[in-house]
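Incident log, structure service

09:12 report received: a user says their structure output differs between two submissions of the same chain.
09:20 pulled the input from the user's history:
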Amino acid sequence: MKAEKVYEVYRKLSLFEEKPKVGEYFGVIEVVNYVVPYYSDKKSYTYGIDFFKEDQEYDILLFKKIGEETIIEVSTGIPFLLNPDYQEYPYIGALEHNKYFQEKFLKYKKVGLSIISDDYLKVNDEFKLLYFKEMNQDSKEKLKNCAKIAHKEFDDAFTEIINKTQAIASVDNAMYDMEKKCKVKALTKPNDDQK
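09:34 re-ran on a clean worker, output below:
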């Protein structure tokens, strides 16, 4: 669905007044995106959101919320992250940040796809009819393909982080070795023949 039509459709449908609770069904009209880890010299690594393409169309999706940030698309059974908590927190130190990254890593790697939305549609008859019309076999295949791409992009981005980290560690080790050599030479007294 093109962006221009989304507003028109939203006007015809009913919104939840609050964020859906675990176990509830809800609809969204959003662009599907995916979560990737990336290297940042400020925090060593964190997460970000990427889009499949710039002029991506909006999808009408029906979800069941199964966790605080985990939802499942009803027709395909594909898990998504709902508004994943990937933000950088300036008030935590590097150790806490790395622990946070590692806690999220397995979940984000396994799920991959995400939806960013604050507009949750009630699943009434009008929404069900629209969803039935829009969620055809092509739409299901598109979502399955998006999930495959998301997993590949996540793996590729993580491999890049590992390579950068190894390169940086290698240079750090060389610098440390040089410091040790210089320190030893400075502390050693010169011999009589070196005077």
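09:41 both user submissions now match this output. Likely a transient worker issue. Closing.
09:42 reviewer note: The first strand starts at residue 25 and ends at 30. The chain has one domain: 3-187.
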